[in-house]
Task: inverse folding
């Protein structure tokens, strides 16, 4: 057991200490715990590539995050789904397809390959860095593929981090309700971690709604991968699979609404989920390199920024139209 956990211990300990510090500061100063976790984590980026910390930080930022998101299904009640309505499901599909098309158009206008447009559009439309890596795996081979993927991963991570901080302020300034804000957070922010952080910085209700909407976007990843595979004859055919944390989220939601989970274990699991997410976002902060972010090529940055703004505008337009 010791030999299995030893490579992860240093990084997990660092992320946990940052998470505990962020929780302490949040309780005493009233600011969002996720924001504190992210900012404190960034200050310790120099440890992200240390051999004693790298594996644990990566585990926390990916696996622990997904486990925490899966447990969030326990907080999703039928009331939240009913309050959101089923129309937004169709809207999310429309947002994803429109953003994918925007990526293809922007790549054409800037003289980039269609493959880059699909890569960038898919990452913005679905789930940021994770989607970029998944889509890159089914694109046809190219000498610049790894470099393009790295640029997209850095770019969407930077934009998602900025969105996590600014979007809640924007949505609240527009006078939107917690449900509306939660929907917009889940529909527009790229990475799962930042969606959770932004949603819960508004309220618990907004956090649950944001996670639910984000899960809908993540569920479309296999569809987008299939579209990409069919768009390029040279793409290698690979088996598409549903993310395990999506299945876990659905199972937890069913269990919570069926009443099979007693109150005490439910409260304990909710607390476990909260700590998993705070630790994961602390690790995400440690992995965030401000130096690498500013080195992204201008044309790549413009394409990603335009796609991000495009997704934000159509989502806000849809929400305001429904409220009118």
Result:
């Amino acid at each position: 057991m010791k030999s299995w956990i030893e490579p992860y211990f240093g990084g997990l300990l660092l992320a946990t200490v940052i998470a505990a510090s962020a929780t302490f500061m949040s309780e005493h100063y009233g600011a969002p715990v996720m924001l504190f976790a992210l900012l404190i984590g960034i200050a310790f980026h120099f440890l992200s590539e240390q051999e004693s910390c790298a594996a644990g930080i990566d585990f926390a930022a990916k696996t622990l995050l997904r486990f925490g998101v899966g447990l969030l299904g326990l907080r999703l009640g039928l009331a939240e789904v009913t309050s959101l309505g089923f129309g937004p499901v169709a809207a999310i599909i429309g947002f994803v397809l429109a953003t994918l098309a925007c990526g293809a158009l922007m790549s054409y206008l800037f003289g980039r390959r269609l493959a880059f447009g699909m890569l960038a559009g898919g990452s913005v439309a679905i789930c940021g860095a994770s989607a970029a890596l998944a889509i890159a795996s089914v694109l046809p081979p190219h000498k610049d593929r790894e470099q393009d993927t790295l640029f997209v991963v850095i770019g969407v991570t930077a934009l998602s981090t900025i969105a996590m901080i600014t979007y809640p302020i924007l949505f609240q300034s527009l006078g939107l309700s917690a449900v509306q804000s939660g929907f917009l957070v889940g529909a527009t922010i790229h990475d799962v971690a930042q969606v959770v952080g932004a949603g819960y910085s508004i309220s618990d209700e907004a956090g649950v709604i944001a996670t639910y909407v984000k899960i809908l976007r993540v569920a479309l990843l296999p569809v987008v991968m299939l579209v990409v595979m069919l768009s390029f004859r040279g793409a290698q055919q690979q088996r598409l699979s549903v993310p395990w944390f999506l299945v876990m989220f659905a199972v937890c939601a069913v269990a919570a609404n069926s009443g099979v989970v007693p109150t005490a274990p439910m409260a304990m699991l909710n607390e476990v989920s909260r700590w998993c997410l705070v630790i994961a976002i602390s690790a995400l902060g440690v992995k965030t390199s401000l130096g690498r972010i500013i080195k992204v090529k201008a044309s790549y940055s413009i394409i990603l920024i335009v796609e991000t703004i495009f997704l934000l505008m159509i989502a806000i337009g849809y929400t305001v139209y429904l409220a009118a």
User: Anything to note?
Assistant: Residues 145-173 form the longest helix (29 residues). The chain has 16 helices and no strands. The two ends are 58 Å apart (CA to CA). The mean pLDDT is 80.
